[in-house]
Protein: 7TM GPCR serpentine receptor class x (Srx) domain-containing protein
Organism: Caenorhabditis brenneri
Amino acid sequence: MTLKWYLGMISFSLSFSAIFLNLLIFIPVFRLAFVSRKSSIYIIAFFNIMSDMLQQISCLQLEASIIADRYILTGYRTSNLSIFFGLIFIIGWYMESLIQVVMAVNRCFVIIWNKHHIFTFNNTLIIFFFLISFNVFCAMCTQYFFPCCAFVTDHATLSFGFISGEGVHSYSNLLIFGHDVFCTITSSLCYFAVFRFIRKSATYAATSRNQKKQDVRYLLQFVFISLFYVFTWVLFEILPHIVPDGQTEWYLLVPIFATINCTSNSIIYMTVNTEVQKSLRAIFNIPKVGGAKVSSVGVNTTDG
């Protein structure tokens, strides 16, 4: 067994665990989003799960190829199937990028401007209809419409990369980079504004204790999810500039952190969100320790 095989197995195991965890919270989040309609927060979480699953499909294909030391399913690096698996990942990635903005803007409307009616059930679905349409268009541009360079999985470098053309500028990489920078800056500014408002606003100081607890809990969940996202794309951009030649093993950090990023959503919701915990216990018939009644985080149908 080679080092590459062991690294592939580790990464494959992480991706398999990520898919399992996302499937575990899929039903609770779906119920809270579309059956109970508890809050638009869960609609956002649902689409975040879907974006994570899309990314993990491509990660599993990459890691299986690393283990086998050949291109599983795709045949070779530049095949149509390779580009298609890249398309699946990019659609998920673009969706996740814009979800960071949606989460941050949601907190601004709810906490700073107290506009709960903006992120209603129907409005949130309309927002995601346009976001998904935009994401698919951007992904098609990245993979098929631009003259260079399609995004693919590459077992030779243990990571993702672009099908580069000699002397041709990588418009695909530029679009991905611009997308990531815009979403990171926008969400960061929104979160900064929310934290500043919570600290200094006299109006918010008069908010009920339960409402404050709910707002801060949601805010921290979103911030932690965004941090994993930012670390993943920054790593993808800087590794080619700092990794010495011949040390391709370092590039495996990108799919590993992409997997951790895809897992963060499910872990945070299972460990922090009491509504998801309560739903999971109901599904698997697990009694609450101590027998006490599960308290809600104050989620209601009017909260964005």
Notes: The beta strands are 151-154, 159-162. The radius of gyration is 21 Å. The chain has one domain: 3-284. The first helix runs from residue 3 to 35.
